[in-house]
């Protein structure tokens, strides 16, 4: 599927601040409970017809299809590239797989013995890493703006056992990918894979249309932005507002946050300006659809 994705360097819009708005990692468990069975209306596609406006950027398009995986040579530095930004990855025979949204995934063989460092990442000159509370990482440019991000790493053994994996900062321009013992079971297989996902593109499109109740903005984040956690959250909202300035209200931001935390897999994140401003927590309780 061909996509056009927006990248945010110096966001033209920031989310409005309000007490309690940055719910972050502290409500993830609650969100999972509240949003189980989220209403179809929240994620359904807007009614076909002539939209009020379609905000789709015409530049910065990633490749319409992913490239074939490529295995790097053992013991060498490999470029982990998304858009125009390349991190340096050092790992044992990583396999790099570019994704259709312009992001890239690195599959890294697990060390034979755990705990151990599975990989190291280095930021290019002029950029820095900032590890977030949920384990994801923002890559900042020289001005401190969002340049890209890393989803929290994952790891499994070949038999499907989950293994602990996390980013650990070694200064502002270097990260270690630390892999620990298995989360399930008492033994760890000597083979498995850790996965690192790096992206810079955030929103495929944001389109105004009509749904039941009135005007609605259908937001389609990139796959990386959906999985990017806190590293993607603020920059994705800034990208939405850059595409659709009328969306810049606290009520719309709370609906966006609700989808990002608990309904990320919805086909589109439908945000409605006519819904009441009831606060972040009440929006979560209402499964993103306060009335």
Could you characterize the architecture of this molecule?
The chain is of the alpha+beta class and 291 residues long. It has two domains: 70-199, no CATH class; 202-291, no CATH class. It has six helices and 18 strands. The protein has helices at residues 28-35, 40-43, 223-227, 230-243, 250-262, 280-285; strands at residues 6-7, 53-55, 70-71, 77-82, 85-91, 95-98, 104-109, 116-122, 128-131, 137-140, 146-150, 154-157, 163-169, 174-182, 192-199, 201-211, 214-221, 269-271. The strands form three sheets. Strands 3, 6, 7, 9, 10, 11, 12 and 15 form an eight-stranded antiparallel beta sheet that branches. Strands 1, 2, 16, 17 and 18 form a five-stranded antiparallel beta sheet that branches. The radius of gyration is 20 Å and the shape is globular. The relative contact order is 0.22. Mean pLDDT is 81; it is low at 10-64.
